[in-house]
User: Which sequence fits this backbone?
């Protein structure tokens, strides 16, 4: 006969007055965790007690029950009830539902531990969906936040996670992705795109959260982008554009999803601004969101004059400057400025800067042959570079701005009135992103008084005689060369002159990361501006000005002008006999560049170059990244990152190499290999000891020593 299975007997439940309960010392929970006792008390007051207390009867010395019960499991609930009693929101004798355990097989400590260990926390996905259900039931985000003692932003985050593609939520529920990955997918609400990206990163292994965010937003434009700041988020959204927001990480304002709409808004706003600038009388306006480095090369730059302030403007400027000086003097010794003072100083500096950045005034006769570049600056503001003359307009510009004969000019004025010197108004040719809105006119109708061949023959004689004369006068030759170089560097007329010499300005790749913002670029620009400020504005006066310079200034100016022709670029060799550089020509160029580097003792680390993900580390193999870290920081540092994926490895390597002055091979100072293994003798006057010269090379001294 089968033995009967003994039935389990559950502990009975009963209501126990609160004043008959005491907190047991056997409760294993010692560390505070979860929501506070105060929040738990508020929740009990709102919805009553959801879970009974686990209690044991207290017996006296004889083993008789005393009517009191200890609470080994449920201590936090007991403390919350106790707080409600102290607040007189709950009666001392209020009945508390309890499970009474009188088991002798288990201890109170075991019961307390079992209740906490066997409890399974709610899966985050279940919580997200529960929040979504409450939202669908009509509760606001603020109500849900108040009920569960979290911030409204936390509620928004969980609702956003619940709105991710159901396919991805199922993957997350099966532990196929981490919570951080799911958070990354919430950047966009487009389920199809989320699933496409998940399929891609799941197969490739590049599934870090930041990589997921990058893929989801690669077609969008950051709100911090200068184009977005130029248009403004309000205008973009008013035009129907959508903005992606990341609720879990700082997103800098989000991402503008409709790039086409943004580009159209940028072009429209730039075109509208250009129309206003065109009213100033410029011949052409080149409009684009941004121009590459060196975009103004080949243009003559006009010298404008700062506009005079009106009496009202001068009074306003003086008032602002006085207030700014007073605040700076008052808080000169303060370690930290008060917030309101700091804000006011910022406003004053911005207002004063507006006075300094007013558009320069140009001559009307120059404006009709010149133009301006209209773009967006780095901060998202309008940037207008006025006063540039194109090469094809140079002849007409020179003819129009050359000083006329005073008598002829007076006669013309008497005959035709006083407005003859004022150019007629013209409609500017506005080019937006390379698309011109008007045809350019050709104003070149010069007439030669003599046949070309005859003039060529005559000037050939003159040229030959002039070469001979210049060769006999070195100071004149140097002035002539420097004059030509200055014309090319500062006036950029590119018209034929009597001296066929010059430096070809080498154009650098405009898209090189960090090139425009580098310390070298800023140094060249500052030096160029300093010389430009000293040079006469009239090219006709340049010769006399150069002739009065001392030799040190001439050499400095000569070096500056010649430096624009330096070319140390590596280029792809033309193997098919085209117009590109040959292998021999490239090697010759690079060898000369190395010699020049040694001559000036150039150290790329000293001028501020640092390896970053953009300029080097993100564009080489993992082995090269590790070699760089190993060389700069040692093998131990390389082992710290050798297990990372390439993207993460590059970012960590950038941090490790930041202050090491490490340089890749193309940027290092090349050492000159010795010509032979035989040590050459030094001349006696350079030798460290008197016997060295007589021991080596004594029979054939150097030419200089022999001459002495």
Assistant:
């Amino acid at each position: 006969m089968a033995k009967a299975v003994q039935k389990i007997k559950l502990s009975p439940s009963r209501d126990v007055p609160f004043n008959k309960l005491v907190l047991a010392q056997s409760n294993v929970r010692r560390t505070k965790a979860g929501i506070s006792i105060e929040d738990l008390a508020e929740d009990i007051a709102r919805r009553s007690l959801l879970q009974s207390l686990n209690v044991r009867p207290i017996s006296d010395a004889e083993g008789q029950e005393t009517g009191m019960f200890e609470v080994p499991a449920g201590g936090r609930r007991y403390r919350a009830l106790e707080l409600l009693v102290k607040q007189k929101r709950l009666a001392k004798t209020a009945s508390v539902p309890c499970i009474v355990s009188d088991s002798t097989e288990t201890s109170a400590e075991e019961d307390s531990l079992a209740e906490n260990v066997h409890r399974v926390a709610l899966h985050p996905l279940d919580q997200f969906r529960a929040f979504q259900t409450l939202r669908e039931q009509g509760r606001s985000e603020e109500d849900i936040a108040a009920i569960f003692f979290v911030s409204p932003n936390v509620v928004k985050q969980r609702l956003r996670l619940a709105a991710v593609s159901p396919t991805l939520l199922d993957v997350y529920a099966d532990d196929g992705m981490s919570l951080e990955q799911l958070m990354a997918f919430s950047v966009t609400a487009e389920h199809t795109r989320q699933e496409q990206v998940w399929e891609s990163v799941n197969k490739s292994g590049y599934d870090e959260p930041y990589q997921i965010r990058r893929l989801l937003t690669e077609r969008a434009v950051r709100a911090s982008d200068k184009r977005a700041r130029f248009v403004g988020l309000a205008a973009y959204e008013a035009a129907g554009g959508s903005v992606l927001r990341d609720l879990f990480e700082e997103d800098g304002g989000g991402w503008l999803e409709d790039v086409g709409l943004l580009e159209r808004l940028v072009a429209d706003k730039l075109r509208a601004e250009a129309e206003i600038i065109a009213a100033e009388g410029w011949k052409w306006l080149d409009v684009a969101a941004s121009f590459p480095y060196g975009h103004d090369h080949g243009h003559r730059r006009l010298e404008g004059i700062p506009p005079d302030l009106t009496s009202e403007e001068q009074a306003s400027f003086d008032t602002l400057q006085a207030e700014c000086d007073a605040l700076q003097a008052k808080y000169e010794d303060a370690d930290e400025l008060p917030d309101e003072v700091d804000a006011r100083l910022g406003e004053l500096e911005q207002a004063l800067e507006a006075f300094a950045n007013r558009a320069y005034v140009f001559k009307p006769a120059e404006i009709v042959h010149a133009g301006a570049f209209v773009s967006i600056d780095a901060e998202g503001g309008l940037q207008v570079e006025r006063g540039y003359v194109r090469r094809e307009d140079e002849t007409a510009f020179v003819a129009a701005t050359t000083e006329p004969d005073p008598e002829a000019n007076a006669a013309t004025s008497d005959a035709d009135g006083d407005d003859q010197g004022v150019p007629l108004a013209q409609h500017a040719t506005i080019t937006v992103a390379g698309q011109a809105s008007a045809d350019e006119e050709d104003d070149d109708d010069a007439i030669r008084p003599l046949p070309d061949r005859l003039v060529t023959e005559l000037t050939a004689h003159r040229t030959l005689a002039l070469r001979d004369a210049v060769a006999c006068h070195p100071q004149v030759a140097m002035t002539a060369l420097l004059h030509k170089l200055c014309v090319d560097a500062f006036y950029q007329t590119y018209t034929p002159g009597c001296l066929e010499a010059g430096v070809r300005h080498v154009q650098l790749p405009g898209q090189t990361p960090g090139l425009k913002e580098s310390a070298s670029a800023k140094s060249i620009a500052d030096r160029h501006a300093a010389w430009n400020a000293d040079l006469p504005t009239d090219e006709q006066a340049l010769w006399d000005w150069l002739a009065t310079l001392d030799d040190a200034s001439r050499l400095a100016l000569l070096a500056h002008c010649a430096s624009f022709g330096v070319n140390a670029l590596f280029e792809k060799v033309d193997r098919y006999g085209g117009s590109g550089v040959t292998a021999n020509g490239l090697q010759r160029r690079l060898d000369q560049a190395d010699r020049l580097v040694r001559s000036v003792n150039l150290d790329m680390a000293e001028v501020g170059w640092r390896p970053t993900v953009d300029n080097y580390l993100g564009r080489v193999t993992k082995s090269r990244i590790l070699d760089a870290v190993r060389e700069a920081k040692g093998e131990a540092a390389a082992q710290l990152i050798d297990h990372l994926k390439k993207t993460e490895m590059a970012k960590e390597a950038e941090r490790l190499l930041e202050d090491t002055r490490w340089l890749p091979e193309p940027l290092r100072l090349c050492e000159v290999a010795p010509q032979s293994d035989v040590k050459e003798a030094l001349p006696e006057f350079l030798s460290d000891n008197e016997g060295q010269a007589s021991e080596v090379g004594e029979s054939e001294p150097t030419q200089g020593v022999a001459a002495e």
